[in-house]
Amino acid sequence: MNIVVLIKPTPDITKVKFDIEKGTVNRASTNLEINPFDLYAIEVAKRIKKLFGGTIVSISMAPPQAEVALRDALARGVDRAILLSDRRFAGADTLATSYTLASAIRKLGSFDIILCGEKSVDGDTAHVGPEVAELLRVPHASFVTQVSRFDKDRIVVESDYGDAYYEIELRLPALVALSRPLMFLGETVEPSIPKVGDVLRARRAKIEVWSADDLKDVADLNRLGILGSPTRVVKSYYALESGREAKVVRGIEGVSTVLQALKELGVL
Ligand SMILES: Cc1cc2nc3c(=O)[nH]c(=O)nc-3n(C[C@H](O)[C@H](O)[C@H](O)COP(=O)(O)OP(=O)(O)OC[C@H]3O[C@@H](n4cnc5c(N)ncnc54)[C@H](O)[C@@H]3O)c2cc1C
Hints:
Elements: E1 2-6, E2 9-11, E3 17-19, E4 24-26, E5 32-34, H1 36-52, E6 55-61, H2 67-75, E7 80-84, H3 94-108, E8 113-117, H4 128-136, E9 140-150, E10 154-160, E11 165-171, E12 174-184, E13 187-189, H5 196-204, E14 207-210, H6 253-264
Parallel strand pairs: 1-6, 1-8, 6-7, 7-14, 8-12, 9-12
Antiparallel strand pairs: 2-5, 3-4, 9-10, 10-11, 12-13
């Protein structure tokens, strides 16, 4: 089974600093690590490989400092890590990102299943999985919380869309965007912690870096990066003020204070 995992290296959101003036994320302020949802994609890939054999290839489009995240992916069980890194990929919106990733998958040749996260913790659009699938013209399912059946030629999943659950059967090759919590064939999936030996092996492993030129046989270079991005960020701003006011009330007399406050708010 040829398994592709899409891994987005993202900043640690508990440590990353923001440039308030420019309204941008300062990506250099913290290491890039594997997007948390993509850790689940790696685990599912490992389980599929255990059942059917095959190879797990990870693909990431990111700046060169993402190498640390890719070594982590190798330590976690990915067989081959490809980093798409080139100035010509910069400024990509989700369409150009998806086009670049889909082109890299096309260059790999055949694949049976593409696994990715439901969304990234920094961009958070949940566009990339479905867009990659559409560009490759394969069926896809998003917000997948359960893989209930996996055969050589088809997969059955459950997708949680918030207001409804869907059971979806997809013929392979297909793309599945994984959510959490996640079940695979009746077992809970949790990201595993890599063993020391695997971490050391991954440190010495080769990361393949592909530039835009490496994609020229499979991609229209005008569809990469900012050139291929029909959308532009016009303005970024923060909406962190919640408008909540915290009040602490103690003791039995606190109960009447809370009741009074609820009456004033019209809740009671
Ligand atoms: C108008 C616009 C302009 C932008 N300009 C820039 C810019 O100048 N510089 C910049 O850094 N970003 C830019 N971005 C952000 C960039 O487009 C997104 O980071 C990228 O498209 C991924 O989208 P997302 O984070 O919402 O991923 P989602 O769709 O939320 O991610 C879903 C899954 O797709 C996979 N995935 C997503 N991105 C990647 C990736 N890069 N590599 C491998 N797998 C991936 C992962 O498995 C992930 O879990 C821009 C976005 C927009 C809309």
